[in-house]
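pls read this stuff:
=====
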Amino acid sequence: LLLRWRRRRALWRKVAEAQERQERSLVRMDAVARRFREQHPSVDVVSILSLPLPELTKKLRDGSLPPDHVFYAYVGKALQIATETNCITEFLQESETQLRKAKLVGKEERGLLYGVPVSIKDSVDCQGHDSTLGFIKNLNKPAAEDSVVVQVLKRQGAIPFVKTNVPQSLISYDCKNLIFGQTRNPLLYTRTPGGSSGGEGALVGGGGSILGIGTDVGGSLRFPAAFCGICAIKPTGNRLSKRGIMSGVVGQKAVAAAVGPLAKDVESLVLCLRALLSEDMFSLDSTVPPLPFNEEVYSSTKPLRIGYYETDFFTMPSPAMRRAVRETKQLLEEAGHTLVPFELTNVDYVIFNYCVRGMFADGGSSFVRKFKGEMEKSSMGMFFWVAKAPHWLKTLLSWIVKPFVRSISFYTVDEVWSLHREIEDFCHQFIGQWKKLNLDVMLCPMLGPALGIGYPAKLSVAVSYTMLYNALDFPAGVVPVTLVTDEDEEELRSYKGYYQDWWDRTLVKAFRGSVGMPVAVQCVALPWQEELCLRFMKEVETL
């Protein structure tokens, strides 16, 4: 008992030190932003913060806007949003050194993101800083070098300036851990900002960052973007380098993880991908296919043939989700595009047998090991209990609740290989259905509006709309298209769900009280067709 008490005390000490560092970071941000305002009282911060990224980069590159004006405007705004939402874990003090160097760069040498302050998710390595994943054991273990994505951003002139909060382990679409606490949605503090790139969603959604970098293994870019009313794209898994990016479940190959940007608008995502898909990335990571951004595909005005569906028949969409798809479909048709119904089948089988089973084919043991010595299992209580339960009990429970329970079992190597083959076959079958309809892209629902804080832990099954495209490894982006209305809220009274079980009853509670909150749609393309996906997203955004 004494030994356990001492260990616990040592852990609390590490947490306290990390929280003090976080507090010092915010104090430092306040000091530098205030000093700049005092020295430059005539700088119009509001107009700088209102500039869209393409316009901002143009002004920075042609010299009409000094990089320090932009940098300190965003430091000040980021501090405000961090104070309101608890989204920032650390200020990267070397960003000020980088800023001083940027002022010396000649016009002809300025990269596509010259002088742009960029926020970085906790799990993306920045040299000299922790990538904690919300685990105490990862504190005081600074990264030896920048991840490839951060290196390329810097070579393109961007200035990474803060790291942002994540849920413990990243396997959650809420945003809370024992070290840094709960991050709140900037639009409504009682709501989650989504996760696992939740700090990014809150900061970009609140206007404290103009461009953020996050990751996605089940919706971790798309949930925060949708919940906070911004845009994001999850590319094909290997379109952007994942070197130097920490993963929640290391080694699994069933569900493709990806790194991608979050921003206020689609054109900002495009600019980010233009900058990242450069020779710098291809030389730093030779496992990434050397595919530069295809301007011809993105700028095409050819009418699109678009598949669509309103539900996956597994997670019943909220009234606002269904309306978002219907209204977007109508606008696209009026603009001259062709909309074709697409029928989804067996999504429950895909989620449980491909995604959950594929990610935790070792019975969840390697994932559970990550929590060894941690004081809190965060939102993973049920998962831990299931992972340790005997097989007969899992089978019994799977008849009572959804087959989530049965999926977390130990599988042999032979069974895992068979599973990978099955996923491959499913992918080709899905593409076959897509091509039979001669589709360019797909319009899909996106879970929304933002759930109340704490609800994602109870509703892991609601990842069905997003995780499908990690299993398929298709590029998928989100664009906010509407706000929840009083009528939507009224319709929610008759929401029952497809199973009318505890999960469905909990989901309707999580949706309630959301009038005025944003709702997005998901835009999807075939693998390696990010430019077409973005072209479609831009069309949806414009309409």
